[in-house]
Structure formats: structure tokens, C-alpha cells
Design goal:
Number of strands: 10
CATH superfamily of one domain: Electron Transport, Fmn-binding Protein, Chain A
Radius of gyration: 21 Å
Number of helices: 6
Order of helices and strands: HHEEEEHEEHHHEEEE
CATH topology of one domain: Pnp Oxidase, Chain A
Structural class: alpha+beta
CATH architecture of one domain: Roll
Helix content: 25-40%
CATH class of one domain: Mainly Beta
Shape: globular
Strand content: 25-35%
């Protein structure tokens, strides 16, 4: 093709990474999904990956239209994974409609991914405030200034809103927690650990919560 599009398409088809990570077997897994996820997260931190706690959050709105974006996991424990957001955001409207979400940690440099899926719940105001108090002041002011996902006239309008927020709380030692901001917990029903392997014969081990509240581990075909 004269415009070069054929060459670009050929280039994409030829992009390939050979995975050669060690085998992931059932005996190597931690006793629980959250301990295993914490171990892999610690490995990502030790490898100095950029944003090791970043996860791709997928949602569907009331009409079933899917959407995804990257958020930062801020709490990981036996209850689930928590991220924080503005309640006016598109993701929050979708979550309120479906009460369900999935997320993927894409640790591609380690040839690993972790996927989790389950219902969501709002964290308590006390828990949200505990995390809020650890945020840099600039990030706190940004949460007050931005009506997340709404259409704005220009970048200038956003900068003006941030300036107004800074002036509003200039005399405050601590910026208060906004009523429109808080945490969302995904309580997993399934958690999959994916390890890249040669010949695309990847290891996929999935923790699944059964109807009796017990977790089982299953191996999935790659």
C-alpha cells in the first residue's frame, strides 16, 4: 500500500516477545489469593516497575457499554482491593449501575498479570479519611477542584478551579475530605494469576470463591 499502512500492519503482526518465566504451579501459590497478590505486588515493587500498584479497572454502564481506565490500588487485604475516586466520575456512575467490576494488574516487564473480578462496596468514611490524610495537599485540592469526567471549556477553566480551591482552604491546616470523594472496594469472587511461558503455553491459576464461601484453585488453559 502506497500510504504505508500495510507496512505498519505487518510491523504489528511481527511484534512478539518470547516468554521464558519460571513455571507457576499450584504448590508455589500462597495459601490465599490476597497473600499471593501481595507477593507479586512486592516483586513488582522490588523490580522498580513504574506504578506497580496500577490496575486497569473495567466497568459496564446501565446500558451494558464497557469502559476501562487505569487506577491505583491503595488497599489490599483479605476483604479485597480498594481504590479511591471522585463520586461524580464516569466509573462511579457505572459502578453504581452494575455493582460489579474487574481489574487487571499488568506487570508486563515481569511477564505476569493478575486479574480479579467481583462485586463492589463503598468503604467507610473513616477509612476514606484515613487514606485522604496521607495524600499530598495538591492532590487533595485537585479532588475539590475537578468534577471528574464532566466536560470543561478549557485547561484554563481547570487551572482556575484549582486556584479557587487553593484559596478556599489557604487558612486550613488540613484540607477536609470532600463529600463527593471516597473509596471503592472490589471483593473478588475470582482472582487469576497469569505467568508468561514459552510457546504461549502460559500458566494460569485461578482462585474461585464457591457458594459455601470456600476458595478453590483451578488451572486454566492458556
Amino acid at each position: 500500500m502506497a500510504d504505508g499502512r500495510g507496512d505498519r500492519a505487518t510491523g504489528l503482526a511481527g511484534m512478539r516477545v518470547s516468554y521464558a518465566a519460571p513455571q507457576l504451579d499450584e504448590a508455589a501459590l500462597a495459601a490465599t489469593w490476597h497473600e499471593q497478590l501481595a507477593t507479586w505486588l512486592a516483586d513488582a515493587v522490588a523490580a522498580e516497575l513504574a506504578e506497580p500498584n496500577a490496575m486497569v479497572l473495567a466497568t459496564a454502564d446501565a446500558d451494558g457499554f464497557p469502559s476501562s481506565r487505569t487506577v491505583l490500588a491503595k488497599v489490599l487485604d483479605e476483604l479485597g482491593v480498594v481504590f479511591f475516586t471522585n463520586f461524580t466520575s464516569a466509573k462511579m456512575h457505572a459502578l453504581k449501575a452494575s455493582r460489579y467490576a474487574s481489574a487487571t494488574f499488568p506487570w508486563l516487564a515481569l511477564q505476569r498479570q493478575a486479574h480479579l473480578r467481583g462485586p463492589i462496596e463503598m468503604v467507610s468514611v473513616a477509612e476514606a479519611r484515613q487514606y485522604w490524610d496521607t495524600r499530598p495537599r495538591g492532590a487533595q485540592l485537585g479532588a475539590w477542584a475537578s468534577a471528574q469526567s464532566s466536560v470543561i471549556r478549557s485547561r484554563r477553566a481547570l487551572d482556575v478551579a484549582l486556584d479557587h480551591a487553593a484559596k478556599r482552604f489557604a487558612a486550613a491546616e488540613r484540607v477536609p475530605l470532600p463529600p463527593h470523594w471516597g473509596g471503592v472496594r472490589i471483593r473478588p469472587e475470582t482472582v487469576e494469576f497469569w505467568q508468561g511461558r514459552p510457546n504461549r503455553m502460559h500458566d494460569r491459576l485461578r482462585f474461585t470463591l464457591d457458594v459455601d464461601g470456600e476458595w478453590t484453585v483451578q488451572r486454566l488453559a492458556p
